[in-house]
Amino acid sequence: MAKKSIAELLTLQGRRVCEMDILRHRCPVAVRSLHCRAVSRPVLALLLATVSFAAGCGKTNAAPAIPAPEVEVASVVQKDVPIFSEWVATLDGYVNAQIQPQVTGYIIRQTYKEGSFVRKGQILFQIDPRPFQAVLDQANAQLAQSQAQLAKTAMDVDRDTPLAKERAIAQSQLDNDIQANRATKAAVKAAEAQVEQAQLNVEFTNVKSLVDGIAGIAQVQIGNLVNPTTVLTSVSQINPIKAYFSISEQEYLHYAERINAQTQKEIPSGGPPFDLILADGSIYPHQGTGLLTNRQVDTTTGSIQIVCSFPNPHNILRPGQFGRLRAAAEVRPGALLVPQKAVSELQGAYQLAMVGSDNKVSIRPVRVGERVGQAWIIESGVKPGELVIVEGLQKVQIGSMVKIKQATLEKGE
Questions:
Q1: Cα–Cα 20 to 30 A to 352, which of 131, 303, 390, 411?
Q2: Distance from C-alpha of 232 to C-alpha of 108, rounded to nearest angstrom
Q3: Percent residues over pLDDT 90 in the chain
Q4: For residues 149 and 234, what is the distance between their CA atoms, to the nearest angstrom?
Q5: Phi, psi torsion values for 348, nearest 5 degrees
Q6: At 378, is the secondary structure helix, strand, or coil?
Q7: What pLDDT sits at residue 222?
C-alpha cells in the first residue's frame, strides 16, 4: 500500500511538470499564477519521507512483557530459642583482706613486691620487735620466779603432810602450805599467759598475709609508726573471682522461683552459665556460675544484686574491672524466627513482605519479640514455613508476581 501511494505521488508530480511546460509557452501570466499554488519541492520531499517511514513501519510488533523481579526469601523457622540477656558487671576479689598490724610500732622492713602474688602466712611487713622482745624476756623471768615459788610450796606441802598426820605440827600449818601452793600454781599460770602474750606480740611484729592472692600497693613507708587501726595494704584472693551485677525488680520477680531454689545450696547448681565480655570486646575463655543473690532490693535503684564467680587460674581478671555478663536466662520453646532485615518498621508498627504459593507479594503486620542474634522472634502474624522477602523489597509492589531465590538464616540467627 505504501509503495502504491509513492507511485501515485510521482505520477501526479510528472503531470504537474508537463502542464507547467505547456503553460510556460502559451501563457506566461498563467504560469506565474499557478506557480503560487503549486506544491513546493520541500513539502513534497517531506511528504515522501513521511510515506517512506510509514512504509517501513507498516508491520509493528507488540511491546515485550516486563519480567518478574527476582527477590531473596527466607522461610519462617520454628525452634526452641535460648533468650540471652546482658548485664554490666563489676569484678571483685573472692576475699579482700585488709592487712593491719596487731601491735603498735615502727615499720622497719617491707618484705613483699607490690602487685605480686603472695601466699597465706607470707611476711609482708616487719615492725621493730625489740620492745616486744624485752617484754617477753621479762615475762619469762616472772614465769621462772613463779615456777621456783611453786616448787618451794610443793616441797613444804610434801614435808608437812606426814608431820601433820603424826601431829608433830599443827594442822593449820599444813593448810597454809597447801593454800600457798595453790596460789603459786595460779601465779605460774598467769606468768605463762604473760609469756604467751609476749610471744604473740613478738610474732605480730611480722605482719603476714591472711590469704593467697595479689598484694596491693603499700599504704605506709619504712619508718612510719603504725597501730592496729592502720591499713598497711590489701590482699585479694582472685582465683576464683566474683562478678557483681544488678537486675531490676521486675526481672527478679520473673526469675524469683528459680533463684530461691538455689538459696539453700552450699554450691548453687543448675543455673545458666555466664559469659564474660571484657572491655576490649573479647570473651573470657572460662564460664562463670551463679553464686548468691543479695538479701534485699536497693530502695534507691529498685534493683537487686546478684553475684557469680569465674575461675581465674592465670590472674587475668582483677578487682575493679568492668565487663558485660551474658547468659541464656530462659529458653523460648517453639519460637518463630525470621531474619531481622526482613522486618520493616513504620510509625511503631512492624510488618513483613510475604510471598504466597502463587508467587504474589503481600504485606502482613506482625508483632515482634526479642532479637536473637541476626534473627527476630515473631510473636504473631506468621506461620512456620511461610516465605518472607529478605532482599529486593524495593523492586516489588503489593500483588505483583516475583521470582524467588531461597535464602537460609545466617550462622547465629
A1: 411
A2: 13
A3: 57
A4: 48
A5: 80, -5
A6: strand
A7: 95
- Residues contacting residue 124 through CB under 8 Å, at least 6 positions apart: 99, 110, 111, 112, 118, 207, 208, 209, 215, 232, 233, 235
Q: Give the three-state DSSP class for 280.
A: coil
Tell me the CA distances in angstroms from 231 to 101, 218, 235, one per residue in order.
Answer: 8, 9, 11
| Lookup: cell for 252 | 527478679
Give the span between the Cα atoms of 109 and 410, in whole angstroms.
63
Instruction: Characterize 230-252 residue by residue with b for buried, 16 or more Cβ atoms within 10 angstroms of its Cβ, and e for exposed.
Output: eebbbbbbbbbbbbbbbbeeebb
Q: Choose among 218, 241, 376: nearest CA to 317.
A: 241
The string of pLDDT tens digits covering residues 352-370 is: 999 988 889 999 999 998 8
Q: How confident is the model at residue 54 (pLDDT cuts 50, 70, 90)?
A: very low
Sheet of strand 206-208: strand arrangement = 206-208, 123-127, 105-110, 225-226
Q: Write out 1-48 in H/E/C secondary structure.
A: CHHHHHHHHHHHHHHHHHHHHHHHHHCHHHHHHHHHHCCCHHHHHHHH
**3-class state of residue 154 by DSSP:** helix
pTM for this entry: 0.65
pLDDT tier at 167, thresholds 50, 70, 90: confident
Q: For the chain, what is the radius of gyration of the CA atoms?
A: 52
Average pLDDT along the chain: 83
Distance CA 241, CA 321 (A): 11
Residues 254/248, Cβ–Cβ less than 8 Å: no
| Position 29 confidence tier, pLDDT thresholds 50, 70, 90 | very low
- Here the cell at position 56 is 517501513
337 beta partners: 77, 377
* SS3 at position 197: helix
Output the CA–CA distances (angstroms, integers) from residue 237 to 116, 119, 232, 307, in the order listed. 12, 10, 17, 16
- Taking the mean position of all CA atoms in its chain, how far away is CA 75? 30
Contact residues for 70 (Cβ-Cβ < 8 A; gap 6+): 392, 402, 403, 404, 405
Q: Tell me the residue type at 376.
A: W
How far apart (Å, rounded) are the C-alpha atoms in residues 108 and 362?
85
